[in-house]
Specification:
Strand order of the largest sheet: 1-2
Helix content: over 70%
Strand content: under 5%
Number of helices: 21
Radius of gyration: 32 Å
Length: 405
């Protein structure tokens, strides 16, 4: 291979050009740094020392001295929002949007920040307007997620469904709570006076389609909820057999949800031999997959159908294998309410009152459901946590059961 001598000349030239460019960059950086007010560096120092109040005061001084510092306006607005000074945050971001010389990327960012200000301030209509405008921007995914939160808060389920479909196109991932939006529509239709059966059926069909393959459904709770609503619709249509078949599939596939299914299951077997068979089915499930809700349902059903002695026999056997403070509290409460229970229990009414008074409060505390995301506790089961608005974060187990596992 021939060697070209001109390379010996080119290499030093390239090296020299690189050295000159580096010197220019350093000088420019030093020049820009000198132009920054001292208040800017004081503000950064306060932020590093976790003193946001003093940092805000310093940054406000910088903005007054140099109104062109766009990024500093964003930082100041975010600090205001974090501290809960939402009116000041809104003013900062509004002033940015009103600037005619603001480049398009910064204008989108300012609109995004302003919409977040409105959302945190509870001005949902203004927040919705801002996020809708951002659906074609680089903030599209964040905007659609925010719109979903707004529509959930407003219980505007048709808009939530439309927004969720948009989100699925953006992220190409299954979103389990979409099933619950259709279930909310079905539940509202069934609760109407008179019930809107057609609307409920259409919503449940859409929910079932959202579940996809029933054997590999992405949302177990969604599957259970759809089945419960279908059973309710079947009972309204006078088809208890269809309701039983629907609920039986839940009992077979998801026995841990038997406590939630027990009430509708027993209602679909009302009368005669079917009631006894339904109770026996629940007792068999309880022996394999015990839960406090299922214990309570069986105990009350036995008490109503066969009297206190039958319910006490079941309770004694259940508590012997699965001790539960909440179960004992229900047992004592039932004795107090039902005449003649003392004969079956061997405990006097006075002793029952005494024991019940001792364990009632701790049993009530332990007899709540707990959100796995935020810890919010509730007396009843929720598909969506009232505390943090997360979906499917309640397990079909009471707090006492969770703490015992």
């Amino acid at each position: 291979m021939d060697f070209d001598p001109w390379w010996l000349i080119l290499v030093p030239i390239l090296f020299g050009l690189g050295w000159i460019a580096a010197r220019v960059d350093v000088r420019q950086m030093l020049s820009e740094t000198r132009r920054l007010p001292d208040s800017y560096f004081r503000g950064l120092n306060f932020l590093l020392n976790e003193q946001p109040d003093r940092a805000i005061d310093a940054f406000i001084e910088v903005v007054k001295l140099d109104p062109e510092t766009i990024e500093l306006h964003f930082a100041l607005g975010n600090l205001f929002r974090r501290r809960g000074e939402l009116e000041r945050a809104i003013r900062v971001h509004q002033n940015l949007i009103q600037r005619s010389d603001l480049p398009a990327p910064q204008r989108e960012q300012a609109l995004h920040e302003l919409a977040q200000d409105y959302l945190k301030a509870g001005l949902l209509d203004r927040a919705e307007e801002g996020f809708i405008r951002l659906q074609t921007s680089r903030f599209a995914t964040e905007a659609v997620r925010a719109l979903i939160r707004i529509y959930e808060a407003e219980h505007d389920w048709p808009k939530a469904i439309a927004a969720m479909q948009t989100l699925q196109r953006l992220i190409d991932e299954p979103v389990p709570q979409a099933v619950h939006y259709h279930c909310e529509l079905a539940q509202a239709a069934l609760a109407a006076q008179p019930p809107d059966r057609d609307a409920a059926q259409a919503a449940l069909d859409a929910a079932t389609q959202g579940l996809g393959d029933e054997e590999a459904a992405p949302s177990v709770q969604g599957s259970v909820r759809v089945a419960l609503l279908r059973a309710q619709l079947a009972m309204l249509d006078g088809e208890p057999g269809l309701a039983r078949a629907t609920l039986e599939r839940v009992l077979q596939r998801y026995p841990e949800f038997a406590g939630l299914v027990a009430g509708p299951w027993l209602a679909s077997h009302a009368g005669g031999t079917a009631s006894s068979q339904a109770l026996e089915r629940l007792e068999a499930i309880y022996r394999q997959t015990p839960s406090q809700d299922l214990f309570d349902a069986i105990f009350r059903a036995l008490q109503a159908a066969q009297g206190p002695e039958a319910s006490w026999r079941f309770a004694r056997e259940a508590l012997r294998h699965h001790p539960s403070l909440s179960g004992l509290e229900r047992l004592l409460q039932a004795q107090i309410e039902a005449a003649g229970a003392a004969t079956a229990s061997g405990i006097s009414d006075d002793d029952a009152h005494l024991l019940h008074g001792i364990i009632q409060r701790p049993a009530q505390r332990l007899g709540r459901y707990a959100c796995q995301a935020c810890g919010f506790r509730a007396r009843r089961f929720y598909w969506q946590c009232p505390g943090c608005n997360s979906w499917e974060t309640y397990l079909p187990k009471r707090l006492e059961e969770l703490e015992g596992t």
